[in-house]
Amino acid sequence: MIGISAIYAEIPEQRIPTEPRIDALGIPLKTLQDRVGVIKTSRKASDQDTADLCVAAAEKLFASGRVRPTDVDCVIVVTQNPDGQGLPQTSAIVQDRLGISENCASFDVSLGCSGYVYGLSIIKSFMQDNGLRCGLLFTADPYSKIVSESDRSTALLFGDAATVTLMTESPVWKIGKFDFGTAGRLGQSIRKSEDGTLVMDGRAVLGFSMSQVPGSLQRVAAANGIALEQIDRFVLHQGSRVVVENIAERLKVEDKTAFYAQNYGNTVSSSIPIVLAENLLESDRCVAISGFGVGLSWASAVLEKVA
């Protein structure tokens, strides 16, 4: 059984406070506090790229002694902001930098906010189908590469980070069934402009999230044979405070989830694994996760702690 054995995150130490920037962007303080919810955004160094963040996360994993580079036979990187122009794939750069064997499968997955949940399904099935025993699933989408500091919809929201999830045959978390979906008709709601900067229609993304994510979580719970009441924690993509709190209210699970990203921001595909690594309680045995955004797409799953 392939599942999650460990998760490590690399969140750059540099933080950019948001409140000093609201006047220049014409954003009321109440909007920042109640809707955006981000106090500081994490920022990579100017000479760091996507692979650098992945390598830093992996070095924490290797330092823990849980696994050695020579054990790894699969590397997948979820990113839409790869090194250079994406050639070679960031996963190959990471494989080389970490000294992982050349007898290792590596590829990138181009997904954003739903990418971690999609990535879990991809790496689990890929490893099982090919008899692989030790995989690394990375997420890294440093949006500081594409966010305009003068864009009031995105400048105070996104932070940089990377995570690595160790996938083995001796997991701590068993991965259950999934629920997926795509609303491509709304895809232009989050996109790159002709000059390469990020454009986001926050109102459209919030409406999409409210219309799709509660139903997805209800379906995935039913697919795994459990009721929402049996889930100990709901880990939602940390899109913003308003989206997390509104989904929780719609499902009546306000006591089982929260917006955790105040001090680093929306880290895109890294937001869910960061919460899994840093914010779960020891008593959490059954966790529902849901990523949603770029595409527009969604993906939900249930994780159960192995006894």
TrEMBL record:
InterPro entries: ACP_syn_III_C, ACP_syn_III_N, Thiolase-like
GO annotation, biological process: fatty acid biosynthetic process; secondary metabolite biosynthetic process
Keyword Acyltransferase: yes
Keyword terms, alphabetized: Acyltransferase, Transferase
Superkingdom to which the source organism belongs: Bacteria
Signal sequence interval, chain numbering: none
Name of the protein in its database record: 3-oxoacyl-ACP synthase
CDD domains, per database record: KAS_III
Secreted among keywords: no
Ranges where the Beta-ketoacyl-[acyl-carrier-protein] synthase III N-terminal domain occurs: 107-184
A Gene Ontology molecular function term of the record: 3-oxoacyl-[acyl-carrier-protein] synthase activity
Domain Beta-ketoacyl-[acyl-carrier-protein] synthase III C-terminal, chain residue ranges per copy: 222-304
